[in-house]
Amino acid sequence: YQEARKQAAAFQRFLPRRHPAHGAAATEQHFLPDLRDRHVLVRTDNTLVVSYINHQGGLRSRPLYKLAHQILVWSQDKLLSLRAVYVPGHLNLGADILSRQGPRPGEWMLHPEVVKQIWRVFDPAQVDLFATRENTQCPLWYSLVHPAPLGLDRSAPGSSRESAPGRGVPSSSSPVLAGPSMVLGPDFSPRRLSLGDSRQGRSPLTGRGHHSSPPAGAVEAVGVASEGAHLLASGLSAEVVETILQSRAPSTRKLYALKWKLFTSWCGHRQQDPVNCPVGSVLEFLQSRLSAGLSHSTLKVYVAAIAAYHAPLGGLSMGKDPLVTRFLRGALRLRPPVRPRVPSWDLSVVLEALCRPPFEPVEEISDRFLTLKSVLLLALSSLKRVGDLLALSVAPSFLDFAPGLSKAFLYPKPGYVPKVPSSTPRPVVLQAFCPPPFRDADQQKLNCMCPVRALDTYVHRAARWRKSDQLFVCYGPPKRGLPASKQTLSRWVVDAILSAYEASDLPPPLGVRAHSTRSMAASKAFLAGVPMQDICNAAGWSSPLTFVRFYELDLRVLP
Predict the structure, then answer these.
(1) What is the 3-state secondary structure (H, E, C) of 219-261?
(2) pLDDT, mean of each 10-residue run, the chain (559 residues)
(3) Alpha-carbon distance 66 to 50, whole Å?
(4) Are 527 and 539 spatial neighbours (Cβ–Cβ below 8 Å)?
């Protein structure tokens, strides 16, 4: 035993403290008496550690190869077997927090027994206005970060704190636990919150005579009678409300909250209740948006957002009201959508540029250009939306490469619902372009456009700084290694196209959007004779009519 501990200590001196593989080795050494002559499974949130342990080394990094070799040699006569599996970071919070010397200073909570005593005095609360999934005391909560079942807290940095018309100013003499900005009981009224009625004689929390109007930030944090609060007030349980709220994607909830905030501000200036206002007020608001130049599709988003928060009228949702339906139909006739039929950029120019610096050689280019090239090639070859790319993962069960890198198979993360749900979910299958050996220069050039080659290089390169199992992560500070947002992916696609034009000494095209890759790639495939049904299956379109109406481009105008 002593000899084994001496060997472990000697081996530990060889391990660089900065690399995650040190954690795996140090753990094995520490528990050596219990692990000797046993099969050992290492669970880690670092994909590079998993790869180098399971493959007994690798070819991408010589220092990591030496480190993996040392671990395996050390384990050879002490363990029966050594294998590693990947655990997503969000499922490894306990070990991750302990490895960073304890929880973050802001992540604290009252002891549950103390909370129970508070509930016995003031009745249980249903909504926590400032919490996270780890420290919330209520079934529903607002948070500064996702996940947030009721939305992001409006008291976050950068949020408006000005008092809206009709809302009171908080009194400094009010008891801390007497105002609705702290907690909301199960019997609070969305209408009362939306009006900010200062005539209320009793606190919704204490039931006593002490009362002060809630601060504007607190009222906005509840979403001025948010959808969750409205459902709770209708008598549904907190568990049912939480399940209902998860029916929309986080991006949809965020968009609806923004549109609803604009509507409540419009109503506030006119001293109207946004939750119970008549349909005429909603139509006046929509008319003001239409006169401001908004399109029919944007107005439909406003209607959907208002319908999510507004009280039903005559048993019908605001979005199904006959007058609202006719208004939208009239807006469509007055302002029909106009779609450009001529592409704003040339696909051949971009692909030619991807075969030259700064996009090649792919093993030596910067992290930025490797990321841009990988994102653009994946978007073009898969015909997927940016939101679909956001759902891809590098976890072993969601990303597979065929032998010889002839193909790549990418599966979306569980729970992801695409914009057009399919009865038979299909993985993203990428076909390699002319893998080596090459017969001529043309094949080598075609291989430079290969999405499988770019993706494989990116996955191995990003493993050095990856902090998430999402496929695409940020490459630069201050969010290096963190998952890229939908807006970031869209910006990368546009930057890749503009950088390709710049590398070709051509003026950058105007009005390039990330979504244009679907139109360009689908039109190019159709022109090349690819069956329309295959194009629809890859793009997630329910029928060829979608392609004809919204995506088909006239590529014959390009040289």
Answers:
(1) HHHCCCCCHHHHHHHCCCCHHHHHHHHCCCCHHHHHHHHHHHH
(2) 41 43 58 78 82 80 82 83 80 64 64 85 81 80 73 49 34 32 34 33 35 35 52 80 81 86 91 90 94 92 91 86 94 86 90 94 94 96 92 90 90 80 74 87 91 95 93 93 94 96 92 92 92 89 87 74
(3) 15
(4) no
| Cα dihedral 279, 281, 286, 290 sign | positive
373 vs 449: CA distance, rounded Å: 9
CA-closest candidate to residue 368, choices 456, 499, 490: 499
In angstroms, the CA 148 to CA 151 distance is: 5
DSSP assignment of 356-404 equals STTS-STTTS-HHHHHHHHHHHHHHHH---HHHHHTBB-STTTEEE-GG
> Please, are residues 418 and 430 in contact by the beta-carbon 8 Å criterion?
no
Are 399 and 408 contacting, i.e. CB atoms less than 8 angstroms apart? yes
What does the alpha-carbon distance between residue 382 and residue 360 come to, in Å, rounded to a whole number? 22
pTM for the full predicted model: 0.57
